[in-house]
Amino acid sequence: MSGRPTYDPLFLFIGGAWIAAEGRAASPVVDPATGETIGAVPLAGPDDLDRALEAAWKGFAAWRAVPAFERGKLLRRAAELIRARAEASAVQLTLEEGKLLAEARQEVAAAADIFDWFAEEGRRAYGRVIPARAEASRFTVQREPVGPMAAFTPWNFPATGPARKIAASLAAGCSCIIKPAEETPATALAIARALDEAGLPKGVLNVVFGDPAAVSAHLIASPVIRKISFTGSTRVGRLLGALAADGVKRTTLELGGHAPVIVFEDADLDRAVSLALAAKFRNAGQVCTSPTRFYLHETLHDRFVEAFAAGAQAMTVGDGLAAESRMGPLANPRRLSAMEALVDDALRTGASLAAGGRRVGDQGFFWRPTVLADTPASARIMNEEPFGPIIVTQAFDDLDAVVAEANRLPFGLAAYAFTRSLSTATAISERLESGMVGLNTFTITVPETPFGGVKQSGHGREGGLEGLDAYLVAKLVSQM
Ligand code: NAD
To answer: Of the residues 32, 103, 216, 325, which has the maximum number of CB atoms within 10 A of its CB?
Structure first.
């Protein structure tokens, strides 16, 4: 496609230096709307990683000595720089990831909000005094930064993914080496640029790209690294958790989900449909909290499917930079193949196709918003996270049965329910095995609330008070 904005040059950021490829291997960055290569991200070798580790070690010593109040001021300055450049960053984000420009703008704004939240929260790393057992003695609990941390973020949220890990760790006084996804590097680098220009001391933040398995194995094995934070699939989370366990290192793992949505007989159907359309097709469904398994009361199942399918069919799928688009492309060709395989399997298993189910055109990675009604529990898509713009539905008539079905999978990240009954809302929020529950809403992610899962969706929380805890250790001082 001609006339597209240009994509920013890409670097490694190690010890305060911006390092271009300079003879290193590089990995192509592809625009999902065109399928064309728009850039090449330099890949760090073992020497680069060792330099990043040394920088993070020295950076930690310097940064932990900076008062939390001053750290907060610097993080707020970075937030302001992110906001000042939001429009340019949002365009870069859409070019590399594909999502609608309107969504990219919201995401960059949210990244700045995350820095503001942690800028404040870092000042509240309170300890406590415990009543002593003997006269003239005291017990105090101090909270200290855990140390240099290694972060790994995926391609679906190139701004807020890195922002959560960088802002929280830096606010706590840790240093950070982050490996954002090689597929979406420019947005993370724009955040690093804002922190650099806000005056972050050298080595406190280092950004590397590379072969994911080699980089994670190298960093996690280093005695410098004290904490690992990963967002991505359960498969990779399990691998990184095992590497971390070898060094008995703390982990925060934000892994896959497969969110159920239970719509009860007394729900406001029109509202549930319109909120579900907006939530499901955000970022073309490539969201770990995306609503996917729709359990619809038998009295409204068919009406819900009909209204939702009509909304899905009416959506304009197109280039994220085009004003008329309502859903952008999938982020990479792996997702297209995954959609094809899951839909074929569901139709073979007995689901009925109420909307979509196919690719759009042969340029870029576009897929029609898809509705698979009456999908049997044995279909792969009822068990594997689709991570794309597809919903599956089943009718239910009994609370216990629908709770069992919603909780059947090993995932437990997000779950949603729609009802006008206070007692049903209370019962369902207690019984769903999930880190986050939305009642009559899909809004569950803001910087001031804890985000994370249970079961194989991972452990640890990002955001909220809990988001800072992830980077603090408690030290008891007993004094006579
Ligand atoms: P993937 O599982 O190979 O990769 C997921 C992410 O992990 C990528 O960013 C990748 O660079 C990184 N990664 C892979 N191997 C790694 C390793 N050994 N060490 C460190 N990082 C590693 O697959 P994918 O095709 O990118 O995505 C497939 C699935 O991953 C999706 O279907 C979805 O279930 C899940 N996913 C989840 C999230 C999330 O927000 N929780 C984000 C992206 C992908």
So the answer is: 32
